[in-house]
Automatic annotation (TrEMBL):
This is glucose 1-dehydrogenase [NAD(P)(+)]. Residues 7-187 form the Ketoreductase domain. The keyword Oxidoreductase applies. NCBIfam families: AcAcCoA_reduct, PRK07231.1, PRK12824.1, PRK12826.1-2, PRK12935.1. The lineage of its organism: Bacteria, Bacillati, Bacillota, Bacilli, Bacillales. Its EC number is 1.1.1.47. Keywords: Oxidoreductase. One of its GO terms (molecular function) is acetoacetyl-CoA reductase activity. SMART domains: PKS_KR (SM00822). Belongs to the short-chain dehydrogenases/reductases (SDR) family. It catalyses: D-glucose + NADP(+) = D-glucono-1,5-lactone + NADPH + H(+); D-glucose + NAD(+) = D-glucono-1,5-lactone + NADH + H(+). It comes from Priestia iocasae. It is an enzyme of class 1 (oxidoreductase).
Length: 247
């Protein structure tokens, strides 16, 4: 198990939901965190203040990671502030659910850009720094929907499945450099994204989850810390944290 004290992480979409839980969990291990946000400035700044009040270190960095120039600025701002980049968590994501017949090109492209294209943008900008780190980590927050599909989610499912292919291929390419590349596939986790699902549908979903409950964002965050601390021999994998919904 390696110590994460004074490592540097970037968490895209790190100020809310699963991303905020990942930020907090990493900070509690002594990691300095760049909390990326797109529109949620207030929650990013509040989280940075909270981490600093607890004796940690963090910065908030605005960037829409679906644009390569903004993703590059995020990585460079982190390097400038903390001198290194050891951990990249690609967590930023959106849904725009529509049945395929009603899915316009704009909603297709937007979901692919934010969920998948962003992963290319941040990873390519951070790669040199991650390779310079002792034990670089790339962790892609994919989804059970990328594995099992989801009604009305062709765009999201394609993006999340794309992350899994990306993860395995890059893991092969980087294995000898010491940088590991893994994906976490959450099931249904209680965040704004899931609370946006109508209540009757949510009840139906819970009734199908073997553990009969939604997951907590902290349960995903602890998976991230595990992969960072204990994951030197784990690469190209999908860590399913889903209450047994997909096996
Ligand atoms: P959430 O509460 O809606 O948060 C989404 C995060 O993504 C926000 O911090 C948001 O930041 C950020 N984001 C969106 N567009 C962005 C962009 N263009 N550039 C930078 N950041 C952007 O969602 P969540 O449930 O925590 O989901 C986090 C990740 O887990 C997503 O990738 C999601 O697909 C995945 N996931 C979630 C579940 C679930 O059940 N909740 C299940 C499987 C996978 P701003 O608010 O600043 O825009």
């Amino acid at each position: 198990m390696i110590s994460l004290q004074d490592k540097v992480a970037i968490v895209t979409g790190g100020s809310k939901g699963i991303g905020a839980a990942i930020t907090r969990e990493l900070a509690s291990q002594g990691v300095k965190v760049a909390v990326n946000y797109n529109s949620s400035k207030e929650s990013a700044e509040a989280l940075v203040n909270e981490i600093k009040a607890n004796g940690g270190d963090a910065i908030a960095v605005q960037a829409d990671v679906s644009y390569s120039d903004q993703a590059k600025n995020l990585i460079e701002a982190t390097k400038e502030a903390f001198g290194q980049v050891d951990i990249l968590v690609n967590n930023a994501g959106i849904t725009r659910d529509r049945s395929f017949k009603k899915l316009g090109e704009e909603d297709w492209k937007k979901v692919i850009d934010v969920n998948l294209h962003s992963v290319y943008n941040t990873t390519s900008a951070a790669l040199t720094y991650l390779q310079a780190s002792e034990g670089g980590r790339i962790i892609n927050i994919s989804s059970i929907i990328g594995q099992a599909g989801g009604f009305g989610q062709t765009n999201y499912s394609a993006a999340k499945a794309g992350m899994l292919g990306f993860t395995k291929s890059l893991a092969l390419e980087l294995a000898r450099t010491g940088v590991t590349v893994n994906a976490i596939c959450p099931g249904f986790i209680e965040t704004e994204m899931v609370l946006a699902i109508p209540e009757d549908i949510r009840e139906q979903i819970v009734s199908k989850i073997p553990t009969r409950r939604f997951g907590h964002a902290e349960e995903i965050a602890r998976g991230v810390v595990f992969l960072c601390q204990d994951g030197a021999y784990i690469t190209g994998q999908q860590l399913n944290i889903n209450g047994g919904l997909y096996m």
